[in-house]
Design a protein that fits this description.
Elements: H1 2-11, H2 15-22, H3 26-33, H4 41-50, H5 59-68, E1 77-78, H6 91-104, E2 106-110, H7 117-127, E3 135-140, H8 153-163, H9 173-185, E4 190-196, H10 199-202, E5 213-218, E6 230-232, H11 238-249, H12 256-265, H13 270-281, H14 288-296, H15 301-311, H16 315-324, H17 334-341, H18 345-357, E7 362-365, E8 368-370, H19 373-386, H20 390-411, H21 425-449, H22 452-461, H23 463-468, H24 475-488, H25 492-508, H26 512-523, H27 529-545, H28 549-566, H29 569-585, H30 589-602, H31 609-619, H32 624-640, H33 644-661, H34 664-678, H35 684-700, H36 704-721, H37 724-741
GO molecular function: ADP binding; DNA binding
Protein name: Tetratricopeptide (TPR) repeat
Domain HTH cro/C1-type: 4-58
Length: 742
Amino acid sequence: MAQLTQIKELSGLSLRALARQAGLSSSSLSRYLTGQLVPPWEATVALCRAVGRDPRPLRAVWAEAAKAGAAPPTPRRNDLPADLFDFTGREAESALVVELLRTTGAVAIDGMAGVGKTSLAVRVAHRLAPTYPDGGLYLDLHGFTPGQEPLEPHTALGRLLGALDVTHPPAGTAERAALWRSELSRRRVLVVLDNAVDADQVRPLLPGAGKSAVLVTSRHRLVSLDGVPPVSLEPLADADAVHLFGRAAGLAPTDEEAVSEVVRQCGGLPLALRMAGARLRHRPGWTVAVLAERLRATPSRFDSAFGMSLRQLDTVQRRTFRLLGVLPGADFDAAVAGALTDLPPDRVGVALEELVDAHLVQEPSPGRYRMHDLIRQYAADIAADEEPQAEAALRRVLRHYLAQAVAHDQTLPAPHRKEPSPGDPAKAMAWFDLEYVNLVACFDAAVRLGVDEVVAELPQAMRVWFFRHRGTDDQIRLLEAAAAAAARLGRDQQRAALLADLGYARAAAGRLAEALSAYELADQSGPDDHLAAGLALRIGFVRRDLGDLKAAQAQFRRARELFEKIGSHAGQSQALAFDGWVTLHLGRHSEAVELARASVALADGPAQITGLVTLGVALASHDPAESLRTLHEALRLSEQNNLQHNQAWCHNYLGVALRIMGSAEKAHEHHRRAFELLEPLAEVQLEIDFLHTYAETCRATGRYDEALVLLDRTIKLARELGRPHDEELALAARELAASSVA
């Protein structure tokens, strides 16, 4: 990748600026430049064009590199539901969708409920899988799902980016949309966006340039969605409807008049036809004429098909169906159905099998179940009239999810746990990933029902998962409601712990004043010594970032006293390190060095990182050799323990130290690497810190234009987040940089 590296150097741009100009993500560009990944030819062309170079001489070199394979290809991602074995008809519509995807890269399939929009989209997506080697993604936007609000574009983008392994998406919707387009531009992915409520929900989710494509389904015709041609579905034509009914019924019906009556009663809708066919299949003594007569007895075609499918079930199965109508979330497993119905596993398994056979429940993957929105609404309506125990059943489900979350959380390693974690942490993390949407839906149901125990405890059970997925959209909302629930329950210690977590989440999002408010409320709740020590440390962080260094120092020293009282060496080490950090910025170098050395001596392993970085920066102007040795040791510990936030922090302050030592080019390399590591983490607080320091390095090394770009970004963020201290610092630095340019 030497040629690409040379192109970058000739451009004079930072990695981020070059990536933006070429329409790539900086993390991808970093992998291309370091040889971890051979770029697609389109990305190579985009890089050359971004710097005004002819890409053609690189073609042969690129072909050799691609043949050698600098890195193994990632496995194809496939989130698509299973294709229907009895999919019938739609040849013309399928051909049109395929052609539009080929020519425009986007299609919106619209039609009434139950007409088969999702089935067509999934059928086409499976058929075109070889055309999109990088995967097929599926996301239900819940535009018409009973009991659920449509998915906001901000949240939808977070989930889509997560499917591409971007675990910490940017905070802003526009930034997420830009990153989503950038990630798709270097892939060939087919995205199915199912059940959209309107064009505004879909617009930010559309791919940009590149060879990825999108299939949208909606009950509404999305006429204002520019560049996305519509394909409208009508009910099946009579011949196709008859064929589908026959396949679902498992017979070749001969009574044409009776079959026509069934098709008419079902309105030509595939969903209703499958149910009617399943009903006949389960009643071998019936003729099609008997089925038609039964359908005629009910005026509504939906009630006819659904009700008839329901009547074929026994009492337990019908009750299971009714209760599934009130179940929160997108999908479920047999254990959840067992909690809902209060039935043993064997009886639940039989009930679910019968419901699947009757087409009342879908099984998109083994052991995972879901309901069509129309059927879910039908079940909920029946439950409202006929199921007095529905709320009690829902409360059992909430307790089930809470118990499962607590059990899986105990498997995850965390700093506050002294004993080794039981079980498999990877499986526990996978469970949270799988059930996350359902956990949030259950939390909202608990709020609605006033089940304060679940509201207060569920976010704490998700604490470690949230820590590893910082930037998750729901975290702050959940913690706010949980703290209020703990207060209603009179649980002061739990409320204090939740407020502390809330402050941390707000601080990570850069909302310092709101973080401080949460911390101070927690501190007023009479926390125990362990929590009080952690709070003092966190309040110190916020005071430091607000520019009040003396108040920050007072908090760090209070934290040290409390950690000493409870016998926590690691806590004392952190408090000493940050005391040293603010002491250094107050201009007392020798005192800062002493505090940092004391911090390192008290800790071992990754707990030494903060003290080592503080020591390294403090020594930069007096002992360059020890400074670099210390900072590289901190970086080694960060890499050895896979701590990406710390890796970014170490690289940034290696850049600061090298700037102080006069090694300009090496300083820039470390700053750039810090931003590459930071990009997927959605850590606004660290971003502001890095912007200040990198801008100072650029200004000190004569790169004034680059400094101005960085400082403008800092000012924009500071204003958005209400951070006057950062804005003031950036404005002063900008004035100096601008005067140097002039």
